[in-house]
Amino acid sequence: MSGVDSPLLLRMRDFADFMIGCVGPILIFLATVLISGIAFIHFTALVPYYSPEISVVYLLHMVWSVWLLFNIGFNYYKVVTTPPGCTADIPQELYSEDLLVQIRTEDAPQRGTGFSRWCKSCKRVKPPRSHHCHICKQCVLRMDHHCPWVGRCVGMHNHKFFFLFMFYLWLACVWVFPLSLYPLYMADITAWWGDEITIQTSMLLAFGLTLSISAALGGLMFWHLYLIGTNQTTIEFYYNNQMKKIYKGRGQVYQNEYDLGWRKNWQMFFGIESASPIWLAWLIPSTSLPHSWGMDGSSFPLRNGEGDSYAHMNNNVDHLV
Ligand SMILES: [Zn+2]
Ligand SMILES: [Zn+2]
User: Fold this and answer.
1) Rounded distance, CA 275 to CA 255, Å?
2) Using one digit for the tens of pLDDT, what is the confidence trace for 264-292?
3) What's the Cα-to-Cα distance from 234 to each of 55, 112, 268, 289, rounded to whole Å?
4) Using an 8 Å Cβ cutoff, are 148 and 137 in contact?
5) Segments in 42-96 forming alpha helices (H)
6) Domain spans of the chain?
7) Which pTM does this prediction carry?
8) Which residues form the Palmitoyltransferase DHHC domain (predicted)?
9) How far is the CA of 140 from the centre of ligand 2 (A)?
């Protein structure tokens, strides 16, 4: 028995998973309170501080700020309420009896060199790019990661909202933290809702929060920007890196088979038709699900023009290395 499978470690992992599952609603509540609080300070103190009278600058600042806040709220609501998609959505009839037997009985690949095609917990086929989440207790389609801040997994159907939430929140923080620095330094900001000390303390809090979120979220947002452009999930990034090393050792070059090129990857991620302007998908809040190119999560287009689906596999294809 390996160390990973020891009963004690498994129990500890189950406990950690349980705690992460419990903390989800608390973090969602906390994120909502923090975002609302900073927005309140921004609209009632910062905007009037820079434009005390109603003017063109004031109106432009208000429209820009409302736009950012609306996108943050919309995408956060969507990522929290949109299930990422699970393998229960994929009919098992898609796979022939022979293939099911083959997938059920084949050995799990070596750690770091591939992914098992059968989930022992769900007792279902794991389509390409899906993984079992121990917290959600299901196999998630095109799984990226489990995010406690949204209380669920980020996967095929909600990754777009997750990315847009990060993008607009980062943009808003990058906007607010420099604006809050000057009145904080001058100590001359006022608002109808508090005395001098209360407002100064609130400004300090808003500055500290927006500065730290800008730095931390900026890193994560640009990381996902890269992943989307290269059509990788966070899980696949580590796998692809491992494969690159293995191929390099053989004197070969490894290529991520899902990478269809920057533009196509982005179009697929946002679920837009090739003729639509690409900016439409992220500039305008949209409820359309990503991967609307006729994909149900059981297969994905490959670089070589074929779909990656187990349903079409008849032989023991070595798809792992
Ligand atoms: Zn599973
Ligand atoms: Zn999960």
Assistant:
1) 27
2) 898 888 877 665 666 666 667 777 776 55
3) 46, 14, 17, 20
4) no
5) 47-50, 56-81
6) 3-312
7) 0.89
8) 115-238
9) 7
What is the whole-number distance in angstroms between the Cα of residue 134 and the centre of ligand 1?
A: 8
Quote the mean pLDDT of the chain. Answer: 87
Residue 316 confidence (pLDDT): 37
CA gyration radius, the chain: 23
Tell me which residue of 46, 63, 68 sits closest to 206, measured CA to CA. 46
Give the model confidence (pLDDT) of 200-258 as tens digits: 999 999 999 999 999 999 999 999 999 999 999 999 999 999 889 989 999 999 999 99
Taking a 5 Å cut-off on Cβ, the residues next to ion ligand 2 are 133, 135-136, 146, 153
Sequence-separated (6 or more) residues with CB below 8 Å from residue 107: none
Structure tokens at 182: 């000057």
- Residue positions counted in the chain: 321
**Do 33 and 191 touch, CB atoms closer than 8 A?**
no
Task: Give the number of the ligand closest to the Cα of residue 145.
Answer: 2
Q: Please list the active-site residues.
A: 147
- pLDDT, position 14: 87
- H-run or E-run covering 23: helix 7-41
d(CA 13, CA 7): 10
Neighbours of ion ligand 1 (CB under 5 A): 119, 121-122, 132, 139
Cβ 164 vs Cβ 71: under 8 Å: yes
Q: Note the ligand closest to the C-alpha atom of 84.
A: 2
